[in-house]
Amino acid sequence: HDGISFREVDFRYDSAGKDVLHRVTFDAPAGKVTALVGPSGAGKSTLVKLVPRLWEAHGGTVELGGVDVRKLPLDTLLSRVSMVFQDVFLFHGSVRDNLRLGRAEATDAELEAACRAARAHDFILGLPQGYDTMLGERGARLSGGEKQRLSIARALLKAAPVLLLDEATAFADPENEARIQEALSELCEGRTVVVVAHRLSTIATADHIVVLDGGRVQDQGPHEVLLSRC
Ligand code: ADP
Ligand code: ADP
């Protein structure tokens, strides 16, 4: 029941500006991976940010489990959606606060396991200050790559039914990239995933592909269908 539906969605960043999204309509089915593809500037990042209401559509609706996201209380919405974005947002507060987001009851052992899976333990566990001190450290003090790994660890811990990925591995160095991708792939299993996809391998394994260009859906379907039209 956690599918996402975009219905005739219009969006522009400023009221005088051009439409960034125009009448966008498609479904990201529950429990499936939907890949968003298209050239830079197509509106892919903007689109995924409408789900957790980082932005709101000016026309049309975005629905989660059949309910307009504007009608869902923010805490309900955020408990159902995990995000790993390139422009990582950490909430004001400590590393521990950020890790525990939506999972206040998580034990320190669970925090540690999620950090290990996301290769985030090095900067939390490996520092001379020690684990407890680092968990208390302000998230804002971390580097870009550390913040991104922390946001992946946060998503692993929270295990929300909906997962949004947008350049989730943008900051990963080569030695961490494979492990981080593996952790993300495991996390994707059985969830409703919308991934802004760049790698061909991601596109080829997605259940559904949506091609966006100039803020409009140009085509959609499983990749066999899209390839057959080329
Ligand atoms: P994509 O993810 O496909 O590269 P984006 O959603 O990032 O596309 O961008 C779509 C359009 O919206 C682009 O023209 C971009 O310049 C513009 N845009 C993106 N973010 C902002 C913003 N915060 N303010 C104004 N314009 C933006
Ligand atoms: P980006 O360049 O935006 O990070 P990718 O195409 O590399 O985009 O996809 C991001 C990550 O999402 C992948 O590394 C993978 O771990 C996960 N992922 C994407 N699609 C799937 C899928 N169909 N099944 C499992 N995991 C997936």
Automatic annotation (TrEMBL):
Which GO molecular function annotations are given, in alphabetical order?
ABC-type oligopeptide transporter activity; ATP binding; ATP hydrolysis activity
Q: Could you list this entry's UniProt keywords, alphabetically sorted.
A: ATP-binding, Cell membrane, Membrane, Nucleotide-binding, Transmembrane, Transmembrane helix, Transport
Question: Where do the ABC transporter domain residues begin and end?
Answer: 4-230
Cellular component terms, GO, for this chain's entry?
plasma membrane
Any coiled-coil regions, as ranges:
none
The record's subcellular location field reads:
Cell membrane
Identification of the protein by name: ABC transporter ATP-binding protein
**Lineage, highest ranks first:** Bacteria, Pseudomonadati, Myxococcota, Myxococcia, Myxococcales
List the range of the whole protein covered here.
341 to 570 of 603
